[in-house]
Protein backbone atom coordinates (compact mmCIF):
# COMPACT_ATOMS: atom_id res chain seq x y z
CA UNK A 1 0.00 0.00 0.00
CA UNK A 2 1.44 3.37 -1.01
CA UNK A 3 0.65 6.92 0.09
CA UNK A 4 1.41 10.15 -1.64
CA UNK A 5 2.44 13.17 0.43
CA UNK A 6 2.87 16.75 -0.69
CA UNK A 7 6.09 18.60 -0.01
CA UNK A 8 5.93 20.22 3.42
CA UNK A 9 6.09 24.00 3.14
CA UNK A 10 8.05 25.32 6.12
CA UNK A 11 6.14 28.59 5.84
CA UNK A 12 2.82 26.81 6.35
CA UNK A 13 2.86 26.77 10.16
CA UNK A 14 3.52 30.50 10.41
CA UNK A 15 1.34 31.64 7.52
CA UNK A 16 -1.66 29.53 8.52
CA UNK A 17 -2.04 31.45 11.76
CA UNK A 18 -2.48 28.19 13.68
CA UNK A 19 -0.75 27.46 16.95
CA UNK A 20 1.60 24.42 17.08
CA UNK A 21 -1.04 22.08 18.48
CA UNK A 22 -3.66 22.95 15.83
CA UNK A 23 -1.11 22.56 13.02
CA UNK A 24 -0.08 19.09 14.17
CA UNK A 25 -3.66 18.15 15.08
CA UNK A 26 -4.85 18.80 11.54
CA UNK A 27 -2.12 16.59 10.09
CA UNK A 28 -2.57 13.93 12.79
CA UNK A 29 -6.29 13.57 12.02
CA UNK A 30 -5.50 12.90 8.38
CA UNK A 31 -3.02 10.21 9.41
CA UNK A 32 -5.54 8.71 11.85
CA UNK A 33 -8.06 8.29 9.03
CA UNK A 34 -5.50 6.59 6.80
CA UNK A 35 -4.34 4.30 9.62
CA UNK A 36 -7.93 3.26 10.42
CA UNK A 37 -7.75 4.74 13.90
CA UNK A 38 -4.39 3.20 14.84
CA UNK A 39 -2.94 5.92 17.08
CA UNK A 40 0.52 4.37 17.34
CA UNK A 41 0.84 4.03 13.56
CA UNK A 42 -0.35 7.60 13.00
CA UNK A 43 2.18 8.92 15.53
CA UNK A 44 4.92 6.87 13.85
CA UNK A 45 4.09 8.44 10.49
CA UNK A 46 3.93 11.89 12.08
CA UNK A 47 7.38 11.35 13.58
CA UNK A 48 8.77 10.29 10.19
CA UNK A 49 7.29 13.39 8.54
CA UNK A 50 8.78 15.58 11.27
CA UNK A 51 12.21 13.96 10.82
CA UNK A 52 12.12 14.57 7.07
CA UNK A 53 10.54 18.05 6.96
CA UNK A 54 11.44 19.53 10.38
CA UNK A 55 7.84 20.49 11.06
CA UNK A 56 8.30 21.19 14.77
CA UNK A 57 11.47 23.20 14.08
CA UNK A 58 9.22 25.95 12.70
CA UNK A 59 7.41 26.37 16.02
CA UNK A 60 8.39 28.89 18.66
CA UNK A 61 9.13 27.94 22.29
CA UNK A 62 10.51 24.53 21.31
CA UNK A 63 7.14 22.80 20.99
CA UNK A 64 7.88 19.11 20.28
CA UNK A 65 5.98 15.97 19.33
CA UNK A 66 6.23 14.91 22.97
CA UNK A 67 4.42 18.11 23.97
CA UNK A 68 1.82 17.38 21.30
CA UNK A 69 1.20 13.85 22.62
CA UNK A 70 0.90 15.16 26.19
CA UNK A 71 -1.60 17.78 25.03
CA UNK A 72 -3.62 15.15 23.13
CA UNK A 73 -4.01 13.27 26.40
CA UNK A 74 -4.83 16.40 28.39
CA UNK A 75 -7.51 17.46 25.92
CA UNK A 76 -9.06 14.00 25.94
CA UNK A 77 -8.30 13.07 22.32
CA UNK A 78 -6.31 9.93 23.11
CA UNK A 79 -6.11 7.66 26.13
CA UNK A 80 -3.59 5.12 27.32
CA UNK A 81 -4.44 1.68 28.61
CA UNK A 82 -2.96 1.28 32.10
CA UNK A 83 -2.14 -2.40 31.62
CA UNK A 84 -0.87 -2.54 28.03
CA UNK A 85 0.19 1.14 27.65
CA UNK A 86 -1.46 1.09 24.19
CA UNK A 87 -2.83 4.39 22.92
CA UNK A 88 -6.34 4.64 21.45
CA UNK A 89 -8.73 7.27 20.18
CA UNK A 90 -11.60 8.58 22.30
CA UNK A 91 -15.18 9.39 21.31
CA UNK A 92 -14.12 13.02 21.19
CA UNK A 93 -11.62 12.21 18.45
CA UNK A 94 -14.16 10.15 16.50
CA UNK A 95 -16.52 13.15 16.49
CA UNK A 96 -13.67 15.44 15.45
CA UNK A 97 -12.81 13.18 12.49
CA UNK A 98 -16.43 13.26 11.31
CA UNK A 99 -16.55 17.05 11.63
CA UNK A 100 -13.23 17.44 9.79
CA UNK A 101 -14.44 15.22 6.94
CA UNK A 102 -17.63 17.25 6.65
CA UNK A 103 -15.74 20.54 6.50
CA UNK A 104 -13.30 19.14 3.95
CA UNK A 105 -16.07 18.10 1.58
CA UNK A 106 -18.18 21.23 2.01
CA UNK A 107 -15.13 23.38 1.35
CA UNK A 108 -15.05 22.00 -2.19
CA UNK A 109 -18.73 22.47 -2.95
CA UNK A 110 -19.85 25.55 -4.80
CA UNK A 111 -21.24 28.30 -2.62
CA UNK A 112 -24.98 27.96 -2.51
CA UNK A 113 -24.88 24.45 -3.93
CA UNK A 114 -25.81 22.91 -0.61
CA UNK A 115 -28.98 23.78 1.25
CA UNK A 116 -31.81 22.20 3.11
CA UNK A 117 -33.79 19.18 1.96
CA UNK A 118 -36.23 20.74 -0.48
CA UNK A 119 -38.63 19.16 -2.91
CA UNK A 120 -39.67 20.86 -6.14
CA UNK A 121 -43.17 21.06 -4.67
CA UNK A 122 -44.75 23.72 -2.47
CA UNK A 123 -46.31 23.07 0.88
CA UNK A 124 -45.63 23.60 4.54
CA UNK A 125 -41.99 24.26 5.01
CA UNK A 126 -39.34 26.53 6.44
CA UNK A 127 -38.02 28.62 3.57
CA UNK A 128 -40.33 31.37 2.31
CA UNK A 129 -40.82 31.82 -1.43
CA UNK A 130 -41.58 35.23 -2.98
CA UNK A 131 -44.93 34.02 -4.36
CA UNK A 132 -48.07 34.20 -2.26
CA UNK A 133 -51.56 32.67 -2.52
CA UNK A 134 -54.97 32.79 -0.85
CA UNK A 135 -55.02 31.67 2.78
CA UNK A 136 -56.64 28.30 3.49
CA UNK A 137 -57.78 26.96 6.88
CA UNK A 138 -54.82 25.24 8.52
CA UNK A 139 -52.16 27.43 6.87
CA UNK A 140 -49.46 28.80 9.15
CA UNK A 141 -50.45 32.35 10.14
CA UNK A 142 -46.76 33.12 10.58
CA UNK A 143 -46.46 33.03 6.77
CA UNK A 144 -49.12 35.72 6.12
CA UNK A 145 -48.20 38.20 3.39
CA UNK A 146 -49.09 41.42 5.21
CA UNK A 147 -48.60 43.69 2.19
CA UNK A 148 -50.72 41.54 -0.15
CA UNK A 149 -53.39 41.15 2.52
CA UNK A 150 -53.57 44.94 3.12
CA UNK A 151 -53.87 45.66 -0.62
CA UNK A 152 -56.73 43.17 -0.92
CA UNK A 153 -58.49 44.79 2.02
CA UNK A 154 -58.09 48.32 0.61
CA UNK A 155 -59.77 47.26 -2.64
CA UNK A 156 -63.14 47.03 -0.89
CA UNK A 157 -62.65 49.39 2.08
CA UNK A 158 -63.66 53.03 2.36
CA UNK A 159 -61.86 56.03 3.80
CA UNK A 160 -64.04 55.84 6.88
CA UNK A 161 -63.68 52.12 7.66
CA UNK A 162 -61.32 49.27 6.94
CA UNK A 163 -63.04 45.95 6.33
CA UNK A 164 -60.73 42.91 6.58
CA UNK A 165 -62.33 39.74 5.24
CA UNK A 166 -61.15 36.17 5.19
CA UNK A 167 -60.72 36.23 1.42
CA UNK A 168 -58.25 39.11 1.80
CA UNK A 169 -55.72 36.96 3.61
CA UNK A 170 -52.70 35.83 1.62
CA UNK A 171 -49.84 33.61 2.70
CA UNK A 172 -46.40 33.03 1.28
CA UNK A 173 -45.62 29.74 -0.40
CA UNK A 174 -42.89 27.74 1.32
CA UNK A 175 -40.57 25.02 0.11
CA UNK A 176 -41.53 21.63 1.45
CA UNK A 177 -38.98 19.82 3.57
CA UNK A 178 -39.10 16.07 3.53
CA UNK A 179 -37.22 13.30 5.29
CA UNK A 180 -35.14 10.58 3.67
CA UNK A 181 -33.91 7.17 4.75
CA UNK A 182 -30.48 6.41 3.33
CA UNK A 183 -28.29 3.31 3.48
CA UNK A 184 -24.67 3.88 2.57
CA UNK A 185 -22.91 0.78 1.19
CA UNK A 186 -19.12 0.72 1.43
CA UNK A 187 -17.05 -1.79 -0.52
CA UNK A 188 -14.28 -3.29 1.66
CA UNK A 189 -12.99 -5.76 -0.90
CA UNK A 190 -9.25 -6.08 -1.42
CA UNK A 191 -9.29 -4.08 -4.64
CA UNK A 192 -9.94 -0.90 -2.61
CA UNK A 193 -6.20 -0.76 -1.85
CA UNK A 194 -4.77 -2.42 -4.94
CA UNK A 195 -2.56 -0.83 -7.60
CA UNK A 196 -0.95 1.63 -5.14
CA UNK A 197 -4.15 3.64 -4.75
CA UNK A 198 -5.88 4.18 -1.41
CA UNK A 199 -9.60 4.14 -2.22
CA UNK A 200 -10.95 3.23 1.20
CA UNK A 201 -9.84 6.46 2.93
CA UNK A 202 -11.98 8.74 0.69
CA UNK A 203 -14.91 6.34 1.14
CA UNK A 204 -14.54 6.51 4.94
CA UNK A 205 -14.30 10.29 4.84
CA UNK A 206 -17.51 10.55 2.84
CA UNK A 207 -19.31 8.21 5.24
CA UNK A 208 -18.11 10.17 8.28
CA UNK A 209 -19.05 13.48 6.70
CA UNK A 210 -22.49 12.30 5.59
CA UNK A 211 -23.29 10.92 9.04
CA UNK A 212 -22.16 14.17 10.67
CA UNK A 213 -24.30 16.21 8.28
CA UNK A 214 -27.43 14.16 8.97
CA UNK A 215 -26.98 13.99 12.75
CA UNK A 216 -26.45 17.74 13.06
CA UNK A 217 -28.61 19.23 10.31
CA UNK A 218 -31.29 16.74 9.33
CA UNK A 219 -32.39 15.01 12.50
CA UNK A 220 -35.50 13.57 10.86
CA UNK A 221 -33.45 11.74 8.25
CA UNK A 222 -31.88 8.37 8.92
CA UNK A 223 -28.53 6.97 7.82
CA UNK A 224 -27.55 3.32 8.12
CA UNK A 225 -24.17 2.05 6.98
CA UNK A 226 -23.44 -1.38 5.56
CA UNK A 227 -19.98 -2.69 4.74
CA UNK A 228 -19.62 -5.53 2.28
CA UNK A 229 -16.88 -7.93 1.24
CA UNK A 230 -17.44 -11.69 1.17
CA UNK A 231 -20.70 -10.88 2.94
CA UNK A 232 -22.46 -7.77 4.19
CA UNK A 233 -22.79 -6.49 7.74
CA UNK A 234 -24.13 -3.38 9.44
CA UNK A 235 -21.75 -1.00 11.19
CA UNK A 236 -22.31 1.99 13.44
CA UNK A 237 -21.14 5.55 12.94
CA UNK A 238 -18.54 5.01 15.65
CA UNK A 239 -17.01 2.16 13.62
CA UNK A 240 -16.26 4.32 10.58
CA UNK A 241 -12.75 5.58 11.45
CA UNK A 242 -11.63 2.00 12.13
CA UNK A 243 -12.78 0.42 8.86
CA UNK A 244 -10.14 -1.63 7.07
CA UNK A 245 -10.06 -3.38 3.75
CA UNK A 246 -9.96 -7.15 4.14
CA UNK A 247 -8.92 -10.07 1.91
CA UNK A 248 -12.44 -10.02 0.57
CA UNK A 249 -14.22 -10.56 -2.70
CA UNK A 250 -17.20 -8.35 -3.59
CA UNK A 251 -20.64 -9.57 -2.56
CA UNK A 252 -22.67 -6.75 -4.10
CA UNK A 253 -25.85 -8.80 -4.09
CA UNK A 254 -25.85 -9.34 -0.32
CA UNK A 255 -24.92 -5.71 0.27
CA UNK A 256 -27.98 -4.54 -1.67
CA UNK A 257 -30.16 -7.18 -0.02
CA UNK A 258 -29.07 -6.10 3.46
CA UNK A 259 -29.72 -2.46 2.62
CA UNK A 260 -33.17 -3.26 1.20
CA UNK A 261 -34.17 -5.14 4.34
CA UNK A 262 -33.09 -2.18 6.49
CA UNK A 263 -35.12 0.26 4.40
CA UNK A 264 -38.19 -1.98 4.43
CA UNK A 265 -38.42 -1.32 8.17
CA UNK A 266 -38.29 2.45 7.73
CA UNK A 267 -41.51 4.50 7.67
CA UNK A 268 -40.22 7.03 5.16
CA UNK A 269 -41.68 8.14 1.85
CA UNK A 270 -38.20 8.50 0.35
CA UNK A 271 -35.71 5.65 0.51
CA UNK A 272 -32.37 5.38 -1.20
CA UNK A 273 -29.16 3.38 -1.34
CA UNK A 274 -25.80 5.03 -1.98
CA UNK A 275 -23.18 2.47 -2.96
CA UNK A 276 -19.45 3.26 -3.13
CA UNK A 277 -17.55 0.56 -5.00
CA UNK A 278 -14.59 0.17 -7.30
CA UNK A 279 -15.03 -3.36 -8.56
CA UNK A 280 -17.25 -5.92 -10.10
CA UNK A 281 -19.44 -8.31 -8.10
CA UNK A 282 -17.27 -11.38 -7.67
CA UNK A 283 -19.01 -13.56 -5.08
CA UNK A 284 -22.32 -14.50 -3.49
CA UNK A 285 -23.66 -16.90 -0.88
CA UNK A 286 -25.20 -19.98 -2.49
CA UNK A 287 -26.67 -22.82 -0.39
CA UNK A 288 -24.85 -21.48 2.65
CA UNK A 289 -21.44 -21.48 0.92
CA UNK A 290 -19.38 -18.78 -0.74
CA UNK A 291 -19.45 -18.97 -4.52
CA UNK A 292 -16.72 -16.78 -6.01
CA UNK A 293 -15.24 -15.95 -9.39
CA UNK A 294 -12.72 -13.14 -9.72
CA UNK A 295 -12.17 -13.53 -13.46
CA UNK A 296 -14.37 -11.33 -15.60
CA UNK A 297 -18.07 -10.80 -15.04
CA UNK A 298 -19.70 -14.06 -14.00
CA UNK A 299 -23.28 -13.92 -15.33
CA UNK A 300 -24.46 -16.16 -12.53
CA UNK A 301 -23.36 -13.54 -9.99
CA UNK A 302 -24.33 -10.55 -12.12
CA UNK A 303 -27.87 -11.85 -12.65
CA UNK A 304 -28.36 -12.17 -8.90
CA UNK A 305 -27.27 -8.57 -8.48
CA UNK A 306 -29.67 -7.44 -11.19
CA UNK A 307 -32.50 -9.38 -9.53
CA UNK A 308 -31.78 -7.52 -6.28
CA UNK A 309 -31.77 -4.19 -8.11
CA UNK A 310 -35.23 -4.98 -9.49
CA UNK A 311 -36.49 -5.89 -6.00
CA UNK A 312 -35.26 -2.52 -4.75
CA UNK A 313 -37.09 -0.77 -7.59
CA UNK A 314 -40.33 -2.58 -6.70
CA UNK A 315 -39.92 -1.36 -3.12
CA UNK A 316 -39.39 2.17 -4.48
CA UNK A 317 -35.78 2.22 -3.31
CA UNK A 318 -33.44 4.13 -5.60
CA UNK A 319 -29.88 2.85 -5.97
CA UNK A 320 -27.24 5.45 -6.74
CA UNK A 321 -23.86 3.92 -7.53
CA UNK A 322 -20.64 5.89 -7.16
CA UNK A 323 -18.13 3.96 -9.24
CA UNK A 324 -14.50 4.80 -8.55
CA UNK A 325 -13.03 2.67 -11.33
CA UNK A 326 -12.67 3.50 -14.99
CA UNK A 327 -12.73 0.02 -16.57
CA UNK A 328 -15.18 0.10 -19.50
CA UNK A 329 -16.54 -3.40 -18.86
CA UNK A 330 -17.21 -2.53 -15.19
CA UNK A 331 -18.95 0.66 -16.21
CA UNK A 332 -21.10 -1.40 -18.57
CA UNK A 333 -22.16 -3.58 -15.62
CA UNK A 334 -23.02 -0.50 -13.54
CA UNK A 335 -25.15 0.88 -16.35
CA UNK A 336 -26.95 -2.47 -16.61
CA UNK A 337 -27.67 -2.48 -12.88
CA UNK A 338 -28.76 1.16 -12.96
CA UNK A 339 -31.21 0.43 -15.77
CA UNK A 340 -32.67 -2.51 -13.83
CA UNK A 341 -33.28 -0.28 -10.81
CA UNK A 342 -34.14 2.91 -12.74
CA UNK A 343 -31.56 4.53 -10.50
CA UNK A 344 -28.48 6.63 -11.10
CA UNK A 345 -24.76 6.10 -11.51
CA UNK A 346 -21.75 8.38 -11.25
CA UNK A 347 -18.26 7.51 -12.42
CA UNK A 348 -16.43 9.63 -9.88
CA UNK A 349 -12.78 10.16 -9.15
CA UNK A 350 -11.44 9.97 -5.61
CA UNK A 351 -11.02 13.74 -5.58
CA UNK A 352 -14.67 14.55 -6.23
CA UNK A 353 -16.40 11.56 -4.65
CA UNK A 354 -17.64 13.63 -1.72
CA UNK A 355 -18.94 16.39 -3.98
CA UNK A 356 -21.00 13.93 -6.01
CA UNK A 357 -22.53 12.23 -2.99
CA UNK A 358 -23.41 15.37 -1.08
CA UNK A 359 -24.92 17.17 -4.03
CA UNK A 360 -26.96 14.11 -4.94
CA UNK A 361 -28.11 13.57 -1.37
CA UNK A 362 -29.35 17.12 -1.05
CA UNK A 363 -31.29 17.20 -4.31
CA UNK A 364 -32.87 13.75 -3.90
CA UNK A 365 -36.25 14.99 -2.81
CA UNK A 366 -39.01 13.32 -4.83
CA UNK A 367 -42.00 13.21 -2.48
CA UNK A 368 -45.15 14.54 -4.09
CA UNK A 369 -46.79 17.15 -1.90
CA UNK A 370 -50.36 18.21 -2.59
From TrEMBL:
Residues 112-139 are annotated as: Disordered. Residues 124-137 have a biased composition (Basic and acidic residues). InterPro entries: vWFA_dom_sf (IPR036465). This is von Willebrand factor type A domain-containing protein. It comes from Gracilimonas mengyeensis.
